[in-house]
Amino acid sequence: MTLPLHHPDDQLLIGYASGQERAGKSLLVATHLAYCPDCRRRVASYEALCGSWFEELRCDDHDSLGGLDALLDRMDGLLAAGRAPAEAKPSRPAPAAPTGGRLVPEPLRSWLPEAIDTPTDDGSWREISTGVWLSGWERTLSGTTICLLRMASGAPVPAHRHTADELLLVLQGAFSDEYGSYALGDVAQYVADTDHHAQGASEEDCICLFLLDGELIFLDEEGNPA
Question: Would you say 192 and 162 are in contact if contact means Cβ atoms under 8 Å apart?
Answer without folding.
Answer: yes
